[in-house]
Amino acid sequence: MRIVIIGAGFAGMYTALSAARLRDIKGVSPDELEIALVAPEPTLVVRPRLYEPKPETLTAPLLDVLKAIDVTYVQGSAETIDTAARMVKIAANDKTPTSLSYDRLVIATGSRLFRPNIPGLAEHGFSVDSLDDAIALDKHLHDLARRPDSITRNTVVVAGGGFTGIEAATEIPTRLRAILGNDAKLRIIIVDRNSAIAPDMGDGPRPIIEEALRKLGVETRLGAGVASLDASGITLSDGEHIEAATVIWAAGIRAAPLTTQIPAERDNFGRLLVSRDLRVPSVPGVFATGDAARAACDDIGNYALMSCQHATRMGAFAGNNAAAELLGVPSRPYHQKAYVTCLDLGEAGALFTRGWDRNVEMIGDVAKKTKQEINTVWIYPPKAERAAALASADPERVTDL
After folding, report:
1. Are 236 and 221 in contact (CB under 8 A)?
2. 163-201: pLDDT as tens digits
3. 272 with 190, same domain?
4. Can you tell me the distance from the alpha carbon of 166 to that of 326, in angstroms, rounded to the nearest whole number?
5. Which residues contact 229 (CB under 8 A, 6 or more apart)?
């Protein structure tokens, strides 16, 4: 028997850990139940940190962890999924295709930044969506030091006033001063179509975010979209042109395109609709998890968000349940009643909220310390020690805040 997991992000990593954990508990050998993880590299990209400087350092190796728990790593990119034949076609790094059969398949392919067809966006826009994108932005920021001092050079526009956009915008002043000097007259602007900043955060946290932006000198342009980009800057939907050498696109994400190969219903974000045990109901043998799945967190209408907090726990349930089906034990319904947010606000500290109503619990330096602990400890893979690694993937304990 074989479980194939596609993706080595937070959801894929915990899927592998959890499936191996249940296999170990049931005393089943890796020869009897193989767990294979498919990804271009055996590396976890710490995506929530890609707004920070030195993005090339924001990865964590997975190969030793996978070896410790007897999970097979298959290097390559899944190109084609044949759900009728239960087969995945994989393009290896040397471009040699191979096929891998499965008894259970877990789609943990994550999400991608939504890039609309806006004139000039592909040529002139940057992002912090992927490791390569973040490295390109970091190189661009350092290259600014070779340009003459000007308003255009010193201006950064962030398109998107959600979580990612706010973290990118509030970190940029520190990053640019380290590159251009403390005397550089910086201008940071967040652009968003919504009438308020951080539309999903709610009325409670918003005044704290607005105060942080004022403290950092970050401007906002609300109720306006992006019409076009060019070498001189950005033009908004209301006709305003902002001269800027740097435009960072942070306006929404969608599930990775591979989900479209599963013949099942999807939501507006491209996520596969799944049952409470994270199965794709209409496709036997297929599970989806993390940003690839629209999953109910409880019985009162809350659904998992596209975040690593939800992805880790969803992965733990998906891995457990994929293995449970093959081992003849009951599956566990995914649930995630505890939910927190911790928003980095750069030199203004951070904001920590709890619950779906986002009740504010910590702000400023205290919240910043928690954010740093989350970013540098909590979200990293477990150590490559078998017992500890398997124990970390107990579905009922993962990210139980």
Report:
1. yes
2. 999 999 999 999 999 999 999 999 999 999 999 999 888
3. no
4. 44
5. 118, 119, 120, 121, 123, 124, 125, 235, 247
CATH of the domain at 28: 3.50.50.60
Task: Compute the chain's Rg from CA coordinates.
Answer: 22
Q: Which domain holds residue 138?
A: 115-249
Distance CA 89, CA 267 (A): 25
Q: Please check the confidence at residue 13 and state whether its pLDDT lies above 90.
A: yes
Residues 301 and 181 placed together within one structural domain of the fold: no
Is 136 within the bounds of a domain? yes
Question: Does pLDDT of 158 surpass 70?
Answer: yes
My answer on whether 57 and 124 are in the same domain is no
**Contact indicator for 190, 82 with CB cutoff of 8 Å:** no
- Determine if the pTM surpasses 0.85: yes
Place of tokens 């986002």: 358
The mean per-residue pLDDT over the stretch 292-320 comes to 95
For β-strands 2-6 and 104-107, DSSP reports them as parallel
Phi–psi pair at 330, nearest 5 degrees: -65, 145
Please, are residues 249 and 231 in contact by the beta-carbon 8 Å criterion? Answer: no
* Assigned token pair, 274: 């799944």
Greatest alpha-carbon span in the chain = 68
